[in-house]
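Section: Multi-chain targets

For targets with more than one molecule, the full set of components is provided together so that the structure can be written out for the assembly as a whole rather than chain by chain. Components appear in the order listed by the source. The example entry contains two components.
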Amino acid sequence: MRVVGGVTLVALAAGLVMAFGVAPREMTQGNVQRIMYLHVPSVWVAYLAFAVVLVASIVYLARGLEGADRLAHASAEVGVLFTGLTIATGSIWGKPTWGTWWTWDARLTSVSILFVMYLGYLLLRGMIEDPDQGARYAAVLGIVAAFNIPLVHFSVYWWRTLHQPPSLMKPGPGTMPGVIVAALMVNFVAFSLLYVYFVAKRARLLRREAEAAA
Amino acid sequence: MWKDLLVERRSKETLNALFFFALLLLFVFQFAVGPDRERLAGTLPGLLWLGFILTGLLGLGRTFVVERENDCWEALRLAPGDKSAIYVGKLAGNLLLMLVVEAILVALFGVFFNLDLAGVLPALAVVIGLGTVAFAAVGTLFAAMTAQVRARELLFPVLLLPVQAPVLLATVKATEAVLLGEPLGSVAHWLKLLAAADVIFVAVGVLTFDFVLEG
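Its structure, encoded as tokens over all components, is:
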């Protein structure tokens, strides 16, 4: 646990150095573009977290392992946190670039739908007193929500982009210079480690809570 | 299912209240939009589905209330055979109830907002049918989940609405096109999305209902 924490810290520091020191200043957007090094890994972690919720929920319903339930719970919390971070960093980037904090762009909308969907998941967990019942209901909701993600994506994409061409946020990987890709990769690794660390910590806390209650 | 329909026919409790509620919604919508015809035409698909959702939330939220109040929850749990049959039965009952209310609502919209719906009715029925199945499938599942929770009236819509977001987008867009007289082929992608949502939600409901009922 300590080791994971330490490695995460080092990786995050390396990510910051890469983002602010090594990566070049972007030509048109200037330094504002550097927030991408936080924004893109955040959304990656969010999706990773929700995928883990799905798998853990299915495992819990099939096998009844309490550990799987705690993993789903911890992962959902961290996922909501990183979805929030994605929206916040995106807003900070959008204000100087698009001139607005928020617009009903396809990706913004779909991420915000995910955000409220999993907030509802956490709300459900908080509202049910019987832990066994809460775990089962949350698992069902975790499965429904995960299957809903592709539907959200298609619907929002068609809703917005049938009428207007894809917006600014289309950085094709082919057009990015190697340094930027490297900086991004370092941050991907760092954020993934951070995710593992957070979830492990939170799951352990949940286990202690359950033990204390028992 | 037949028991639910029978109870409903005898009491007409839910249907009467929902009908009255739908009528009140029309008043509210009229006040909100005002008499401007053009603005009304633009907002009509959204308003129509808003009406369906609000009545649906009230109707579906009550799915398992009768069982809870009459202490039949235990009986449902102990019932022999496949639990998913209970889900399918409840879903069919809800579907029927919603479709009846929706038909009434569409007719009321036609009369009060002076629309000529006769020509687009078959296409409209397809869109409404597909959307309602998705709505009722998730709604029935979540209604069972929230039936035991204290703040059930609050939690049910809070869980259901975000999950329904893609279905709503699809239905509103498709309804808009249909009301403008476009053929169904022009909204085929929306209809496919709705059909996919129907299949996914019903399948998840059938597969997981067992676990919901256990507690």
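The longest helix of chain B spans residues 83-112.
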